[in-house]
């Protein structure tokens, strides 16, 4: 039976091959979402191994964080941008889940992230969620939760105000755009907990700042952040 299923998979792949969502080449049988070459060549930051790093520095003097990291560097017209675009606009939710699973395994082995209680994706406003059909940050959070053995929570941090797109806005404009647009439904849930706030891409950090601003006064809370990618400067 196993031999038959393997043969059937190979036969189907001749006509409908699975392709790497970064480079477009056909995937081998044991590969998933990304080919082995892209997995090794995509520009990893390694920031999860550094307490103080460029992602952490984005928040210095603005918000206090326990830890901060991003999986990849983001450059325009790069494979990472192509992946994010497919995740965000082309319905390829498997990208977020897969990258979350891979990165979660790495984060779990680091002391800074080993005791995370809740993984919280940056929320979309209900109107945007209805239009897009899913929250791309939630797919990443889902993958992270599976390998970090932490609970994903999508009901406590909420976006109550629809904001304009952050594209092409300055850092100050981005911050003004997200001020006072988030709320917490149950502060008791996050009391004395380590929260990992996650997004797809960190550019200036303004959206996460807005989330942190709303959570930071909860008693005993520790807030860390993680993203699929951070804009390289």
What topology does this entry show?
Blueprint: H1 2-15, H2 36-41, H3 54-57, E1 67-74, H4 79-89, H5 93-108, E2 118-121, H6 126-132, H7 136-148, E3 151-152, E4 157-159, H8 171-178, E5 182-184, H9 187-190, E6 194-202, H10 206-215, E7 222-231
Parallel strand pairs: 1-7, 2-3, 2-6, 6-7
Antiparallel strand pairs: 4-5
Bin the strand percentage. 15-25%
Average pLDDT figure = 89
CA-based gyration radius: 18 Å
Task: Specify the overall morphology.
Answer: globular
Oligomeric assembly: single chain
Number of helices: 10
How many strands in all? 7
| SSE pattern | HHHEHHEHHEEHEHEHE
Instruction: Report the span from N to C terminus.
Output: 53 Å
- Segments where pLDDT lies below 50 for 5+ residues? 2-16
Could you give a short account of the major beta sheet?
A: 5 strands, parallel
Structural class: alpha/beta
DSSP helix fraction: 25-40%
What does this structure look like?
With 233 residues, the protein is α/β, with parallel strands linked by helices. The chain contains ten helices and seven strands. The chain has helices at residues 2-15, 36-41, 54-57, 79-89, 93-108, 126-132, 136-148, 171-178, 187-190, 206-215, and strands spanning 67-74, 118-121, 151-152, 157-159, 182-184, 194-202, 222-231. Strand 6, helix 10 (206-215) and strand 7 (222-231) form a beta-alpha-beta unit. Helix 5 packs parallel to helix 7. The longest helix has 16 residues, at 93-108. The protein starts with a helix and ends with a strand.
């Amino acid at each position: 039976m196993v031999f038959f299923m393997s043969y059937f998979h190979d036969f189907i792949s001749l006509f409908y091959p699975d392709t790497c969502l970064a480079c477009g080449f056909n995937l081998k049988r044991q590969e998933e979402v990304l080919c082995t070459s892209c997995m090794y060549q995509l520009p990893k930051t390694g920031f999860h191994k550094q307490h103080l790093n460029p992602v952490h520095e984005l928040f210095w003097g603005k918000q206090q964080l326990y830890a901060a990291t991003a999986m990849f560097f983001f450059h325009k017209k790069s494979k990472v941008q192509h992946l994010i675009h497919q995740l965000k606009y082309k319905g390829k939710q498997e990208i977020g889940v897969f990258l979350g699973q891979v990165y979660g395994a790495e984060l779990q082995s680091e002391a800074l992230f080993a005791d995370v209680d809740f993984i919280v994706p940056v929320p979309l406003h209900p109107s945007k969620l209805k239009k897009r059909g899913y929250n791309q940050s939630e797919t990443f959070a889902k993958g992270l939760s599976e390998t970090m053995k932490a609970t994903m929570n999508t009901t406590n941090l909420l976006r109550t105000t629809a904001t304009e797109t952050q594209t092409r806005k300055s850092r100050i404009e981005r911050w003004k755009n997200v001020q006072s647009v988030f709320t917490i439904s149950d502060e008791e849930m996050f009391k004395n907990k380590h929260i990992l706030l996650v997004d797809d891409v960190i550019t200036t950090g303004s959206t996460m700042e807005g989330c942190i601003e709303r959570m930071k006064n909860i008693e005993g809370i520790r807030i860390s952040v993680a993203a699929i990618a951070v804009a390289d400067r």
